[in-house]
Amino acid sequence: MSAPLIVLLPGDGVGPEIVAAARRVLERVGAFEFTEEVVGGASIDAHGMALTEQVLDACREADAVLLGAVGGPKWDSTDPDAPRPEQGLLGLRKGLGLYANLRPVHPSPALVGASPLREERIRGTDLLVVRELTGGIYFGDRGREADRAHDTCVYTAAEIERIAGTAFDAAAGRRGRVTSVDKANVLETSRLWRETVDRVAAGYPRVELDHMLVDNAAMQLVAAPARFDVILTENMFGDILSDEAAMLTGSLGMLPSASLGDGGPGVFEPVHGSAPDIAGKGIANPLATILSAALMLRHGVGMPGAASAIEEAVEAALARGIRTPDLAPVESEVPPMSDLPGEVAVGTEEMTDAVLAELQVSDEPL
Ligand code: NAD
């Protein structure tokens, strides 16, 4: 069997640092063919656009795509015609037909102290956010006049059906519960969402379904996160709720994601952005990207054993007390991480070394 072809898209800010870290881990667990391409601000600088056809074609021909992050102040502009780094992400999602974004949230037992929530609140949390990725207000008609602007939210029943199918399939392999999040008391698209999800649910008699308004879901996620199994939601609600859910893990730097379509290459990337405030300092937490690489092995290239090995190595490194600065306690009166007994503050390279040191690689292909 030939080595899986992986396109690496480091992007901007901390992207190159964390993708390099994930590549080191991947090289330890298997043989891959890597090609590296530009996307986002880096592509705007090189080609005047955030995603070129050539890069999109390279991704189409790959087995999977591992992305860092895009964006940064250099490319911020209020000019609606200026190219924006995010267009690279949206172009990839559209171009590869990626409609399902999966974001597992399973706080590491070693990091319960890093979460801003009390331990008893987050204990037992193991949820999966399934976010629709190609519809809704991010893709609807928009416009701007002098002092008036509009963005339009559109969903079709077919778009809702396929993402609901992804969520119910995932729940069937987990604890068998889907919470569908909408704003059906106000939005017409949410009423279509609710009706359609009910219809899909009828085909999954062993999966329990409840509906929740998005404002309540935002509250429940911090009040009782362990009650959730699979959260199914539309594009913008999912964008916001999954960042909120990320904080249960103590840091945006811990949360991986997978974006999948119908059988073509998926895009695997950390949930966080390009962190321009710490770019180039060597202190970015690489774990969300390393865990995204694990998701890629599981969902993108059929190497579930290697995926589990990486996840276990990350957990073991954290259990040894290795921490990047973002995993430090949130209260300012707490002493700096390096002074805490048993915990060691490290940079991106050292955290990656710690994961590699814990990686159990057998002679057999994982
Ligand atoms: P961000 O996620 O980049 O950063 C938010 C905070 O989290 C910052 O303090 C940052 O230092 C910290 N952080 C993020 N990732 C970290 C990591 N791996 N290790 C340690 N700390 C980390 O969000 P932002 O500041 O709102 O956005 C910065 C840029 O990223 C913007 O241009 C935004 O458009 C872009 N962005 C890109 C993506 C993406 O590529 N998928 C997602 C969100 C934001």
Describe what this molecule looks like in 3D.
- The protein is of the alpha/beta class and 366 residues long.
- The chain folds into two domains: 1-98 and 261-366, Isopropylmalate Dehydrogenase, CATH 3.40.718.10; 117-249, Isopropylmalate Dehydrogenase (3-Layer(aba) Sandwich), CATH 3.40.718.10.
- It is 38% helix and 18% strand.
- The chain has twelve helices and 14 strands.
- The protein has helices spanning 15-29, 41-47, 53-61, 86-95, 119-122, 157-172, 188-201, 214-223, 235-246, 287-300, 304-319, 348-358; strands at 5-11, 33-36, 64-69, 100-105, 127-132, 142-145, 148-151, 177-182, 208-213, 230-233, 256-260, 266-270, 322-323, 344-345.
- The strands form three sheets. A ten-stranded mixed sheet has the order 2-1-3-12-11-4-5-10-8-9, with helices on both faces. The protein has a two-stranded antiparallel sheet with strand order 6-7.
- Strand 11 and strand 12 (266-270) form a beta hairpin.
- It is globular, with a radius of gyration of 20 Å.
- It starts with a strand and ends in an 8-residue tail after the last helix.
- Residues 330-340 have low confidence and may be disordered.
- It binds nicotinamide-adenine-dinucleotide.
- Nicotinamide-adenine-dinucleotide binds next to helix 4.
